[in-house]
Amino acid sequence: ENSKNIKTKYLKNLLWLNQLKKFRANGEIFDGKIINVAENGHLVIESNNAILMFDIKEVEFVFVNNI
Questions:
Q1: Beta-sheet strands, E only, within 9-49
Q2: What is the CB-side half-sphere exposure of residue 62 using CA atoms within 13 A?
């Protein structure tokens, strides 16, 4: 129960949860949205109707300059 409460609070404060953003993994840039964090701590991203899971430092946000 305590771990469930921690996960709920973590997701509530997770930046860009359920928002479409650009990411980079394995040298490829793709659009996706963070939908969850797995029990093992992997970031769960939905992209093109696929569910992708990434460990720490396997994926990064791509910041787009709109100037």
A1: 21-25, 28-37, 43-47
A2: 14
Q: How far apart are CA 4 and CA 44, in angstroms?
A: 17
Q: What is the pTM of this model?
A: 0.87
For 19-63, what is each residue's pLDDT tens digit? 999 999 999 999 999 999 999 999 999 999 999 999 999 999 999
CA dihedral 25, 19, 21, 65 (to 10 degrees): -140
Assign 3-class secondary structure to the chain.
Answer: CHHHHHHHHHHHHCCCECCCEEEEECCEEEEEEEEEECCCCCEEEEECCEEEEECCCCCEECCCCCC
Nearest residue to 46 via CA among 64, 15, 21: 21
